[in-house]
Prior knowledge:
Elements: H1 3-7, H2 15-18, H3 35-39, H4 41-55, E1 58-62, H5 68-77, E2 82-86, H6 111-122, E3 127-131, E4 150-153, H7 158-171, E5 175-178, E6 190-194, H8 202-214, E7 226-230, H9 256-276, H10 288-292
Parallel strand pairs: 1-2, 1-4, 2-3, 4-5, 5-7
Antiparallel strand pairs: 6-7
Helix pairs in contact: 4-9, 5-6, 5-9, 7-8
Amino acid sequence: MTAAGVGGPANAPGDAEAAAPGPVAVPYQEPEADLERRFGGLRRLYGEAGYARLRAGRVAVVGVGGVGSWAAEALARSGVAALTLIDLDQVSESNINRQVQALDATLGQAKVGALRERIAQIHPGCEVRAVEAFVDAEAWPALLTEPVDVLIDACDQLSAKLLLAAWSVQAGVPVITVGAAGGKRQPEAVSVDDLAAVTHDPLLSALRQRLRQRHGAPRQGPIGLRCVFSREPVRRPEGECEVDGGLNCHGYGSSVTVTATFGLVAAAQAVESLIRADRVHGAQRGIVDRMQGSPEGC
């Protein structure tokens, strides 16, 4: 008997009809996020009431660069309900050393947009408003289209910081103000204190002076503005370059170990404020009337 006679043709007529049907292709669907499983560990840390406040929290972050981007991500990983991200800049290659959303794939994108997409992979239940704008007297507070419970000021412009600090007491919304991270190498030197006690930070020193001169902030005792700053002396860069004392480190060198620490500490302060359900820091209450009655602008 020939080989053909033993096995016959591999595909004899009628074989296709007799064969069992193959698997049917089903479009892939992302599994629905289990937010309780993702963030339930926070309940054991903060308790039922604190966890509920945290999960309902609404936070704004002004400036999402080397400090603010890490603060925003930490808040997303803490399960807050809503984030408003405000910044007009785009991601550039020089941001990659310190900004969490800065990657090859995001170069040229709006910083707030790139961060919103990242947060969607972390906390899909978080409502993120990405606002491409800078804070100034004409735009603020209209940039906030929804109420917030606490705001992190991680911007690097003195005029904007002054505007946000004055708005804080007028609106009764706690603001966590972040100092300058450029020229610093020691994350362990990052500290939290009232603006009146801040040292080694020219940007916050100028803010303190303006609040006292223009807005009636007390010259003795607490001012009522919670600040994140470093007591490490600023390290000026070698050679000649332009330095502005700000957060964006145009001339000063910068390290993610420091900028991220600033951002994470600021986020921790915001979380504590949400859990306590603060509206106005106690020390602020003593200067609200004077600051509201100030005739000068920011």
